[in-house]
Amino acid sequence: MSHNTRQRRLDAMRACDRILSGVRPTTMRERLADMDAGGDLDDQPDFYGDGPVTTLEARVADLLGTEAAVFFPTGTMAQQVALRYGADRTGHPTVALHPLGHLEVDERHAYAHLGGLRSTWPTTAPRNPTAEEITALAEPVSTVVVELPLRGAGFVLPSWDELAAASAAAHAIGARVHFDGARIWESTPHLAHTLSEIADLADSTYVSFYKTIGGISGAALAGTTELASYARIWRHRYGGAVFQQWPAALTALAGLDRELPRIPEYVRHARTVAAALTALPGARVYPAPPHTHRFLLWLPHPAQALNDASLALAEEERVWFVAGWQETAVPGMAMTEVTVAAPALDWTAENIAEVGERFLGRVVDH
């Protein structure tokens, strides 16, 4: 997408009165208000990780029920430290990953290029590995990574029993369990357990502060005090000991206060939205019902035609429906991710059907 097209979409979405998928883009001035909501701006800023960063770390450790948590500027860095720790402690350079996970798809194989580690895939199925697949691994692994939810497969989650069994199987083969919990915040309704109960199944958990809860950046790695000490050393070595990170810390704290309590409501309403979208001609959603407040949507039209229709609807009617369409391996069938957040809560199934008809009426297949 060109810069001009991206800016046009942002401007159109910001001007909309109603938004079904996603949240209204914010300006830098609006983000400053978030910082004020996250703490007292008259306090001193952090210096290499104290002050509001320490407050955020303690908050995360409390939410996840872990001994400690360490702030990182990026999730990529936090994940590399977690895997390096596992390899150092077990002596095994192999980690069990999913080919659709962040570590393989989004982090440019940093675990291999920076950490000298290699991966094995317990499964290529569009879900996290089962206990049986972990037990059947043909070589020793230092860490078994479970992404909650697995975005690349459609924001899918295992059941609680499946997750507990997978964790037990990993420990039984002498491996650590690491939860790639970038979006773990939205996993509690489906798993029907608290964040601390979920994290208790893992030896380490990574969380993101800009995904789901709306911070401007940052992540945390949570686990034992021993892991935290190790993580602080390697954070510095990786270049993550940033002089001041109070803007990220304060917006993360604000997000934990504002967004985290609302996630169960978003997940419930996502089921209504998904069912209504399924009624559109040729539509398909997955998973059905959604496991979180995000899911995948397919429509039988070219991606460019759908994106053009979405932008036209936004600019002419000030209504943002569903955008971000991409082509799939099936010609003429496009896919996108739908995110149901606060702006979507006042949309009824009838609203979605009505606007969906107007949206599809603007689609011009070429």
Q: How many distinct beta strands?
A: 13
Overall 3D geometry?
globular
The CATH H-level superfamily of the largest domain is Type I PLP-dependent aspartate aminotransferase-like (Major domain)
Q: Which CATH class of the largest domain is shown?
A: Alpha Beta
Q: Please tell me the overall pLDDT.
A: 96
What is the annotated CATH architecture of the largest domain?
Answer: 3-Layer(aba) Sandwich
Structural class: alpha/beta
Beta-strand proportion: 5-15%
**What is the oligomer described by this structure?**
single chain
Strand order of the largest sheet: 2-8-7-6-5-3-4
Radius of gyration computed on alpha carbons: 21 Å
Q: How far is it from the N-terminal to the C-terminal residue, by CA?
A: 19 Å
SSE run: HEHHEHEHHEHEHEHHEEHHHEEHEEEH
Total number of domains: 2
